[in-house]
From TrEMBL:
Residues 50-60 have a biased composition (Basic and acidic residues). Keywords: ATP-binding, Ligase, Nucleotide-binding. GO terms for molecular function: ATP binding; tubulin binding; tubulin-glutamic acid ligase activity. It comes from the Eukaryota. Residues 1-60 are annotated as: Disordered. Belongs to the tubulin--tyrosine ligase family. This is Tubulin--tyrosine ligase-like protein 9. One of its GO terms (cellular component) is ciliary basal body. The keyword Nucleotide-binding applies. The keyword Transmembrane helix does not apply.
Length: 312
C-alpha cells in the first residue's frame, strides 16, 4: 500500500471512558476535535446562560472525563485492500501470582470498505467493530470475519512460517506485559476470574499493536462459526474454573486453552522455567493453531478419572 498524505498522518485519537469506539476523534497538536460538535460558549466557559459565579467556581462544576490517547496506525496490514484487527481471548485465574491462559481460537474482524487515508468521516473504513460494520448497507458476517487459523495460514503462505512465529510471539509479549502492568492495581481474589478480549492491530511490518483490552467481552454471535467458537470458549472457561474440582492444578492445556503464564513463563515441554534468555525456551502458546479441543478433553478427563481409581 502506498503511503497517502492526509490529515491522519501523525494523528492521535482520543477515546472517552464511555465511548465504544464508534467514531474517530483526531487530536492534532494540542487541539481536540469534539466528537459531538463544538460546545456552546456557555459550556466552554463552564457555566450556563445568566450564571454570575466566578470562573473558578464554574470550573469546579465541570464534569471531568478521562480519555485514552492513541497514535493512529496509518500503515495497517491489509487483506483484499481492507483493514482488520484481531480478537484474542485471555483467561486470568489469578493476579497474585499471575496465572493466565490463552485460547487457541479467535478471529480477524474486517472493515466493509477498502482502506484509504483520504477521509476520517467513513467509519466503515477505519473501524472494524462488528457493532459498526453491521450497520453497513452491504454487510455480510461471513465476509467480515476470519477464524485465526485461516488468518495464520494466510500469513504463512505470504511471509513464511518464521515471520508468523515472530509475530505471534510478539503478541504473546503484549498479553503478558499488559497483565503485569496492572497486576498490583487489581484486587486478587482466589474466588474470581476474568475473561478478557484483546484487540490487536497488525501493521505492514508485521508488528502487532494493542488497541484495547475488553473486560467481559461481547459473546454475541454473528454467524454459525462465531456461535460455535464462543460456546466452546465458554465451556472451556468453565472447565478451567473447575467448580467440580476435577483438575489437578498441574494441567498445561484444558480444551482450547493453553497455560501461558504461571507465576512465570510456561514451556511447551515439561521442566522448569527458562529464565536464562538463551533462546531455547518455547512458550506454551498455540494461538491460531489446530484446536482439537474435544479430543483433548476426552483424553484429559479419562486420565483424571483413571487417577482417581488408582489406589494410593
Amino acid at each position: 500500500m502506498s503511503r497517502q498524505k492526509s490529515k491522519l498522518q501523525g494523528a492521535w485519537t482520543a477515546k472517552g471512558k464511555r465511548a465504544r469506539a464508534e467514531s474517530i476523534n483526531p487530536v492534532q497538536g494540542h487541539s481536540y476535535e469534539y466528537p459531538h460538535g463544538c460546545p456552546s460558549p456557555q459550556a466552554r466557559m463552564g457555566g450556563s446562560k445568566g450564571d454570575t459565579r466566578s470562573s473558578d467556581d464554574q470550573k469546579d462544576d465541570i464534569p471531568v472525563e478521562n480519555y485514552v490517547a492513541q497514535h493512529y496506525i496509518e500503515n495497517p496490514y491489509l487483506i483484499g485492500g481492507r483493514k482488520f484487527d484481531l480478537r484474542v481471548y485471555v483467561l486470568v485465574m489469578s493476579y497474585m501470582p499471575l496465572r493466565a491462559w490463552l485460547y487457541r481460537d479467535g478471529f480477524a474482524r474486517f472493515s466493509n470498505t477498502r482502506f484509504t487515508l483520504n477521509s476520517i468521516d467513513d467509519q466503515y473504513v477505519h473501524l472494524t467493530n462488528v457493532a459498526v460494520q453491521k450497520t453497513s448497507p452491504d454487510y455480510h458476517p461471513k465476509g467480515c470475519k476470519w477464524m485465526l487459523q485461516r488468518f495464520r495460514q494466510y500469513l504463512a503462505s505470504k511471509h513464511g512460517p518464521k515471520a508468523v512465529e515472530t509475530l505471534f510471539s510478539d503478541m504473546d509479549n503484549i498479553f503478558i506485559r499488559s497483565l503485569q502492568s496492572v497486576q498490583k492495581a487489581i484486587i486478587s481474589d482466589k474466588h474470581c476470574f476474568e475473561l478478557y478480549g484483546y484487540d490487536i492491530l497488525i501493521d505492514q511490518d508485521l508488528k502487532p499493536w494493542l488497541l484495547e483490552v475488553n473486560a467481559s467481552p461481547s459473546l454475541t454471535a454473528s454467524s454459525q462459526e462465531d456461535y460455535e467458537l464462543k460456546t466452546c470458549l465458554l465451556e472451556d472457561t468453565l472447565h478451567i474454573v473447575d467448580m467440580e474440582a476435577r483438575l489437578t492444578g498441574r494441567e498445561k492445556r484444558v480444551g482450547g486453552f493453553d497455560l501461558m503464564w504461571n507465576d512465570g513463563p510456561v514451556s511447551r515441554e515439561d521442566g522448569a522455567h527458562d529464565l536464562s534468555g538463551l533462546g531455547n525456551f518455547v512458550t506454551n502458546t498455540h494461538l491460531g493453531c489446530v484446536n482439537d479441543r474435544k479430543k483433548q478433553l476426552r483424553q484429559l478427563f479419562r486420565s483424571l478419572q483413571g487417577q482417581k481409581k488408582t489406589p494410593n
